[in-house]
């Protein structure tokens, strides 16, 4: 006789235990249809109003995700107890409906710690941190005693060190045993997440007992806070204890080596993971591929990827990102297509990597194709993917497409706003950039350094000197942002383009940074236009010191001397340039046609298929002339 039937043997067919065992069997089979049949039988025999069976069916329907059936069962229960209502609270929170859970909670005649925990965890899981903290405060005011689980939930949502220390102190005052491993791990995680590693180590060192999670949390905290060498040393110390590293430990340490660009130690960790059999874990494999790629060893990353006997979205995403990082766009796109053919659903990071690579090298048609896949896969509302699409269309000049995507986004974070502002600025949409910035401020979104860099760039392109200077001067006072080198460079360029060289030089002298070559370049070009020889000589000398290999100061100075007939000075500058081995940088441009990228250099007299290109240009000029677009045309000979 099957074990399940043996369990039912001797039970009365209409007893509560009989139906409870059948419900357990339905759960093990994961069969909603069996649950419905069983529920119908219970209704038939009149046991559906019984509290115990009602609670069992209520829990089952919430687990299977059938909200309507769960609510119908809840209404049928004659004597609802605290368990009935707690199941409802958990169910609503699982469905992402904390408002309905709150209504049930408010109507509860009595509450226990499970009720409070359900509401607090429900608000945390929905991202309503303030509501969760408010519920935690009400719990204590009403006399509820928080459990260890309550504190672990609250600690996962704390966003400031002062608040974290208050909760830590509250745990001590309430007499909770801080030797508890779960509480200790939660405290380490909280302090590490907030960047207070000294407090995290303090908790770790006072724990009477620790487990692998304790070590992993401490090592991850060191890595997250930028203490990479400390993370390595803790890993070495951990191996001297009775705790053995797991896949999470290994992946974290590989990421540490990746940040340190320490290929030697990274290879040792990878060899260890092979030895203990961790390399079949996708997190470990993905971390290893990322490390080789960031350490400029793409060939090793490719070899590692090809040797894997299995594929999953995480590993493919790492490899696609690696290809994109090294400019191997065709390989990135081909691997992306392969993942689709193998029914490996790409993540938002996969799509973002592919979109960012195609925006740089491939024709825009490729971007259109990937955009269609984004829609088919249902990622069009994802913020990361939407930002990548905005960036793609902005880079290829289709700024109207970018604006439509931005307008259709439901929730816009600061990265979305910054991507749109930068895209508009680079496409010389000056008024639109400023309007978007005003909209951001009116939405209450705090601007950051990238936001203001985009706005200043737009003012630069539009020659809006007054607006640019006003924003630049108010950065620290209104937005709490100290101007960076990028902001100074932009404002100096704006003033230089407007011919305000004196003001530009005043800002350069007041800069808390050493002026970059771009800053001197802006002033130098303006000097050449205004033909101020004394300032040209001064700025050229300063630029030669800051950027010894740049040819620009020599060329501008030689041109200035030539225009004034100072031939000896011109020859001296030219000879000095040759003596130092400085070569003029040759500009180039490229265009993608189908699967090929054609490059054109500035000093190239006959580009690839040059005769065909000139013939097509000649035909276009003739057609424009015939249509009346051009009155006087210089004939090509």
From TrEMBL:
Pfam families linked to this entry: E_motif (PF20431), PPR (PF01535), PPR_2 (PF13041)
Keywords from the named record: Repeat
Any one biological process term the GO annotation gives: RNA modification
Keyword Phosphoprotein: no
InterPro entries recorded: E_motif, PPR_At4g14850-like_plant, PPR_rpt, TPR-like_helical_dom_sf
GO MF entry, a single one: RNA binding
PPR repeats: 81-111, 112-146, 211-245, 312-346, 413-447
Aminoacyl-tRNA synthetase listed as a keyword: no
Protein name, as recorded: Chlororespiratory reduction 21
Species this protein is from: Rubus argutus (Southern blackberry)
């Amino acid at each position: 006789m099957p074990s399940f039937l043996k369990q039912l043997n001797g039970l009365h067919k209409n007893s509560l235990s009989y139906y409870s065992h059948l419900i357990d069997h339905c759960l093990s089979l994961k069969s909603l249809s069996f649950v419905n049949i069983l529920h119908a039988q219970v209704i038939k025999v009149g046991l559906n109003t019984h509290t115990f069976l009602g609670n069992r069916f209520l829990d089952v329907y919430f687990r299977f995700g059938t909200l309507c059936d769960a609510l119908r069962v809840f209404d049928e229960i004659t004597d609802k107890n605290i368990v009935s209502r707690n199941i409802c609270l958990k169910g609503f929170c699982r469905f992402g409906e904390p408002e309905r859970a709150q209504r049930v909670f408010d109507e509860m005649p009595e509450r226990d710690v499970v009720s409070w925990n359900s509401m607090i965890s429900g608000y945390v899981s929905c991202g309503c941190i303030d509501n969760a903290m408010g519920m935690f405060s009400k719990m204590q005011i009403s006399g509820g005693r928080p459990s260890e689980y309550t504190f672990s939930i609250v600690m996962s949502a704390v966003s400031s060190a002062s608040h974290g220390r208050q909760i830590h102190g509250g745990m001590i005052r309430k007499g909770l045993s801080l030797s508890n491993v779960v509480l200790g791990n939660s405290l380490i995680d909280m302090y590490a997440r907030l960047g207070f590693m000294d407090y995290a180590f303090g908790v770790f060192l006072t724990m009477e007992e620790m487990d692998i999670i304790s070590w992993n949390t401490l090592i991850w905290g060191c890595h997250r806070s930028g203490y990479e060498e400390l993370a390595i040393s803790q890993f070495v110390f951990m191996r001297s204890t009775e705790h053995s590293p797991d896949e999470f430990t290994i992946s974290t340490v590989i990421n540490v080596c990746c940040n340190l660009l320490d290929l030697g130690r990274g290879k040792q960790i990878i060899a260890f993971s092979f030895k203990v059999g961790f390399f079949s874990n996708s997190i470990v494999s993905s971390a290893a591929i990322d490390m080789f790629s960031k350490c400029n060893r793409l060939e090793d990353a490719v070899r590692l990827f090809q040797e894997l006997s299995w594929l999953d979205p995480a590993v493919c995403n790492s490899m696609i990102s690696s290809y994109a990082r090294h400019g191997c766009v065709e390989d990135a796109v081909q691997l992306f297509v392969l993942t689709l053919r193998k029914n490996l659903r790409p993540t938002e990071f996969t799509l973002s990597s592919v979109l960012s690579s195609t925006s740089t090298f491939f024709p825009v048609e490729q971007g259109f194709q990937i955009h269609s896949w984004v829609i088919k896969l249902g990622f069009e509302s994802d913020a990361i993917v939407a930002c990548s699409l905005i960036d793609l269309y902005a880079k290829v000049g289709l700024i109207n497409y970018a604006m439509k995507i931005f307008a259709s986004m439901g929730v816009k974070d600061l990265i979305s706003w910054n991507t749109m502002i930068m895209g508009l600025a680079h496409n010389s949409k000056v008024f639109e950039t400023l309007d978007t910035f005003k909209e951001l401020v009116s939405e209450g979104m705090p601007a950051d350094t990238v936001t203001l860099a985009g706005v200043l760039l737009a003012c630069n392109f539009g020659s809006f000197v007054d607006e640019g200077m006003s924003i630049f001067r108010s950065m620290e006072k209104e937005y709490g942002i100290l101007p960076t080198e990028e902001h100074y460079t932009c404002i100096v360029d704006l003033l230089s383009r407007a011919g305000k060289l004196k003001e530009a030089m005043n800002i350069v002298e007041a800069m808390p940074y050493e002026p970059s070559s771009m800053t001197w370049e802006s002033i130098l070009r303006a000097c050449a236009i205004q033909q101020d020889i004394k300032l040209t000589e001064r700025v050229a000398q300063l630029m030669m010191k800051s950027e010894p290999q740049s040819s620009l100061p020599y060329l501008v100075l030689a041109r200035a001397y030539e225009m004034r007939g100072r031939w000896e000075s011109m020859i001296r500058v030219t000879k000095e340039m040759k003596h130092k081995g400085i070569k003029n940088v040759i500009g180039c441009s490229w265009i993608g046609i189908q699967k090929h990228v054609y490059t054109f250099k500035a000093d190239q007299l006959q580009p690839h298929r040059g005769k065909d290109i000139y013939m097509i240009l000649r035909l276009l000029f003739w057609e424009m002339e015939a249509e009346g677009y051009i009155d006087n045309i210089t004939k090509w000979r």
